[in-house]
Design goal:
41% strand, 13-stranded parallel β-sheet, disordered N terminus, mainly beta
Length: 617
């Protein structure tokens, strides 16, 4: 513990010098970069078997930084002579992955793998598993509890029976033999439960023994609840076909409950996941480079902070496909990013879906008339969501006369390459109950609103629309996005969308009237802060602890709640002169501190210093 100097032992500049010497001896530099890089990768590799490298850019709070619209991480490895293919990872909204083949010189025991974006970088060390003893497995597991670790080689179909538990320990590599017969790859059937206990440092991997021959699937069939943590599944999907895409998944849940945390499902022959009559939850998961993302039917779904990207081909390359659920089941997408594919980002069929705080982007294939959100029957609620660079941003339709489709959109930014909002007659129905309720939003496109039916069924209020549309509070104006070419759709100062939302709507986070669009404006000038000069640490008195707090800021990078309060001489800058002025005021009967002193007030002198946490109202 640092002993603070007693005020009776020093005074004025002498005291400042002693405090500075003490701080120089014991204070370490503080402060972290606003953005950091993280990499989730297995802690070992087997020559000839690619590893999934998942790269994330994090903001100051440790969350994936979705403001990083597009980026590329460069991969490198040591020792010299090690090659990586590919050696790049494309990130969309702060996250991306690549299935990487590592070729190292003979006798290499370990490889240091580095990912870098400009000055940001992170490194992980992977052990060489060449020569590691493999545990072979197939058929039915007989014991009530089986634990896997190290390298497990699945040489045939495998079943975890009812009442049985398969526990996969951190760092386990599960290699599954593939077959050349389409749809008949070896699978792991779960009738009991699986506990997949990977960690950030030691993920668990399920992949093909021969990367050119995909395996089947992990199938939960009437199983007990199961958990996957930091699990990676790649090079599968050679499994029974089904669903909208008529392809097999790598993970299937039938009448089962499955929870996945920080998992990755990538590079599959078919779709990433399929569920029927199930209850599934995904948190911080990645779905990529497959025919399509998840497809569910009669299933409850929680999909939070998930990324789905890179679905290309000729067979319904959707980011996620949501059939109708059973009574009492909810489907919610929150904080997710669905980016880049040839069909639709989110495709619904009769389901009731809540979409909040999501980004749907880059589904712009004109041959498929790709959509950000495609709704067929059912009801979809969209809030605080950005839809950008899709041929049609939102499209709603019904299949049969008497069906109904309802889309509610609030505080969202809808940007279509061709159409913004569409009520579409796909099935030759003369009249249709397709209703849009759009509020506090921005809708921009070459054709902002298109309908094959009654225009009055598309109700907009307090929206900025790129064509005139009736409704309370609607405007026709450039929203003044900050930098749309770089994916920054925040509002610039002076935007007509600021404080232009429904005055009866809940206020924005800063307490002001609702803005139009997905991202509330945060650049407004706040009212001047009230503070007491000299109360550097924001406690009840001006004393030596305030001097210490100021010196820690100057020489150790510690943050201050109110820089203005620390500006003891009101010079508009913080330096050692402020510490000397405070010490003189406290111990040498110096002159009073400039206003506001003794009582709360505002700074009479304009300066660039902030006051993030004013010490008084």
């Amino acid at each position: 513990m640092t002993r603070i100097l007693s005020p009776t032992r020093c005074s004025g500049a002498r005291c400042a010098g002693r405090v500075l010497a003490l701080l120089a001896a014991c204070a370490a530099p503080a402060g972290a970069a606003e953005r950091s890089l993280d990499m989730i990768v297995p802690d070992a590799w087997l020559p000839g078997v690619p590893v999934l490298v998942r790269v994330e850019a994090h903001d100051a709070d440790g969350a994936v930084d979705r403001t990083l619209w597009d980026a590329e991480a460069v991969l490198s490895a040591a020792p010299a002579g090690t090659t990586l293919a590919p050696d790049r990872v494309v990130l969309r909204n702060g996250l991306g992955s690549a299935l990487v083949r590592i070729e190292a010189p003979p006798e290499t025991a370990e490889v240091a793998l580095t990912a870098a974006i400009d000055s940001l970088q992170t490194t992980r060390t992977l052990r060489n598993l060449d020569g590691e003893v493999m545990t072979e497995a197939k058929g039915g597991l007989s014991a009530a509890l089986i634990e896997w670790s190290g390298v497990v080689h699945v040489t045939g179909a495998l079943t975890v029976p009812a009442g049985g538990t398969l526990r996969v320990l951190p760092g386990t590599l599960v290699l599954i033999d593939g077959v050349t017969t389409d749809t008949a790859g070896y699978s792991i059937d779960i009738e009991g439960t699986i506990e997949c206990l990977g960690t950030a440092a030691q993920p668990v991997t399920f992949t093909a023994r021969d990367p050119a021959v995909p395996w089947g699937e992990v199938h939960h069939d009437g199983a007990e609840p199961s958990l996957y943590q930091y699990a990676i599944m790649t090079r599968g999907g050679n499994s029974p076909r089904g669903g909208h895409t008529n392809t097999g998944p790598i993970l299937r849940a039938t009448e089962s409950r499955v929870r996945c945390e920080r998992c990755s499902f990538t590079d599959t022959k078919g779709k990433t996941m399929q569920a029927s009559g199930a209850d599934v939850e995904f948190y911080d998961c990645l779905f990529s480079r497959s025919v399509m993302g998840p497809e569910i039917d009669g299933t409850a779904l929680i999909w939070e902070r998930c990324w789905a990207q890179e679905f290309y081909g000729k067979d319904d390359n959707d980011g996620i496909y949501l059939h109708d659920q059973r009574a009492g089941q909810a489907i919610a997408l929150r904080g997710c990013v669905v980016a880049s594919g040839d069909d639709d980002a989110v495709d619904t069929l009769g389901s009731d879906v809540a979409i909040e705080d999501c980004i749907l982007r880059d589904f712009a294939n004109p041959a498929e008339d790709s959509k950000g959100l495609s709704v067929l029957n059912g009801a979809v609620d969209v809030r605080r969501t950005l839809i950008a660079n899709c041929m049609v941003a939102v499209s709603a339709k019904i299949r049969d006369a008497g069906d109904q489709a309802i889309v509610r959109i609030d505080r969202s930014t809808i940007l279509g390459n061709d159409v913004g909002i569409q009520a579409y007659d796909k099935y030759g129905i003369d009249t249709a109950d397709i209703f849009y309720y759009v509020s506090n939003s921005i809708v921009r496109a070459s054709n902002a609103i298109y309908t094959d039916y009654l225009p009055e069924d598309i109700l907009l209020s307090y929206c900025d629309v790129s064509e005139e549309w009736p409704g309370d509070g609607n405007i026709l104006a450039d929203p003044l996005f900050t930098d749309p070419a770089a994916g920054d759709f925040t509002l610039r100062e002076g935007s007509p969308c600021i404080d232009a939302g429904d005055p009866a709507a809940p206020p924005d986070p800063d307490g002001s009237r609702a803005d139009m669009g997905c991202f509330p404006f945060t650049g407004a000038v706040p009212p001047p802060p009230h503070f007491i000069r000299g109360r550097v640490n924001a406690d009840a008195a001006v004393d030596l602890s305030d001097v210490v707090a100021l010196l820690l800021h100057l020489f150790a990078g510690r943050s201050l709640p109110c820089a203005k309060a620390a500006d003891a001489n009101d010079s508009g800058a913080l330096d050692i002169a402020d510490a000397v002025r405070l010490l003189g005021y406290l111990f040498a009967h110096g002159e009073a501190l400039p206003a506001p002193a003794e009582a709360c007030g505002i700074d009479p002198t304009a300066d660039p210093l902030d006051c993030l946490t004013p010490p008084c109202p």
